[in-house]
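Project standup — Tuesday

K.O.: blocked on the structure for the chain from last sprint. Re-posting the sequence here as requested.
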Amino acid sequence: MRLQDRVAVVTGAAGGIGKAIAKRLASEGAIVLVADLTEEPREGGGRTVEEIRADGGRAEFIACDVSQEADIEAAVARAVALGGRIDIMVNNAAIGTDTPLLETSVADFDRVLAVNARGVFLGCRAAIARMVTQDPLDPAGEVRGRVVNISSQHGMIRAPNDIAYGVGKAAVVYMTRQIAADYAPDGIVCNAVAPGKVLTGKTGRAIDPEMLAYSHSRTPWPRLGRPGDVANAVLFLASDECSYITGENLMVDGGWMAG
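H.V.: unblocked you, prediction finished:
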């Protein structure tokens, strides 16, 4: 129970990677606020909060559009109301357009950046504003709060035919480093996790045979990723075991970027 009674917000946690993160944190004792547009997962399956509670964990849902400042502020305020503080902020929510430069409208580009970049900015700002006022809970008395941003290998290399997604994820990588350095003196740990190709149950282009073949060709490990692979990395970065690590973009990609 590495996160016993710690309070966590996970955005985009109704399904996919976010759902796996929320369930993993709850399994270690965290009180989890699931912040998403809807409780219904796009990938199918049960609702995150219901599954956490069925396993004996503690969780609550709040409707949240991460691109809206008021929604993010309300989510952080609700987390504080649940447990008196916010210990962990996981900025996971993201969207894409599946279009290259010449097929991406200004409206679609702005919409993706509003979620993938501004949403992370707003999440970090709202959470850290509260975190810096809290007393440290870690055994060393050093850490007031932890932020884990979900980036992507496509924040460092091209996102095939999805320029807006890649630009947004590149912004996440940068923000993670900037925030980590700026707020380390205040006891804030800020890291990112960069998933490779993760099979979440999505349909459509995500499992197009050509896309899967491309992902297998780029991934040295003999399988593609699972949501739990990312969730385990987030758990480490959200725990007291992660102390002298901040500003990192941890690859969970089966060796994609090593190849």
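K.O.: great, moving the ticket to review. The first strand starts at residue 7 and ends at 11. The domain at 7-251 is CATH 3.40.50.720 (Rossmann fold).
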